[in-house]
Amino acid sequence: MPQYDVHLNPGPMREAVPMVVLVQSSLFDGYRRRVVVPLVLRSALPAGAKVSGTRMNPVFKIKGQTVVLHPLDMVSVASEQLGPCVGSLADQGPVIADALDELLTRSWG
């Protein structure tokens, strides 16, 4: 499964989180789990939330929907629990990596 592929979310939160983006390196494709970051509908975020459009929460347009990367809810799921692949954010890889860098290394100070 290519890094930055976008998959439909078949889970119970699919109304607010219609998709996830796979962020783990293909070096770990031998494992049965995949690390994904939710892509939350911008309209599902609280009014006035200062989340979308920040370095940690970039905004993307996918399949006509405006979604926000939400790394704080990053999770590992079994690969068979991913919905169908509906696109790729590979061209936005550096933006996604920056968001994860913000979460993991820069946010402490």
Outline:
The chain is of the alpha+beta class and 109 residues long. It is built from one helix and seven strands, in the order E-E-E-E-E-E-E-H. 13% of the residues lie in helices and 31% in strands.
Structural write-up:
The protein is α+β, with helices and mostly antiparallel strands and 109 residues long. It contains one helix and seven strands. Strands 1, 2, 3, 4, 5, 6 and 7 form a seven-stranded antiparallel beta sheet that branches. Strand 4 (59-62) and strand 5 (65-69) form a beta hairpin. The N and C termini lie far apart (34 Å).
Beta-strand share of residues: 25-35%
Helix-strand pattern, N to C? EEEEEEEH
Backbone shape = globular
Distance between the termini: 34 Å
Task: Name the average pLDDT.
Answer: 91
Low-pLDDT sequence parts: none
Q: What would you report as the Rg, rounded to the nearest angstrom?
A: 13 Å
Structural class: alpha+beta
Q: Report helical residue fraction.
A: 10-25%
Tell me the number of strands: 7
**Major sheet, described briefly?**
7 strands, antiparallel
Number of helices, where a helix is a run of at least 4 consecutive DSSP H or I residues: 1
Assembly context of the chains: single chain
Main traits of this protein?
seven-stranded antiparallel β-sheet; globular; 109 residues; alpha+beta; 1 helix
Layout of SSEs?
Elements: E1 5-8, E2 19-22, E3 33-41, E4 59-62, E5 65-69, E6 75-78, E7 85-88, H1 93-106
Antiparallel strand pairs: 1-2, 1-7, 2-3, 3-5, 3-6, 4-5
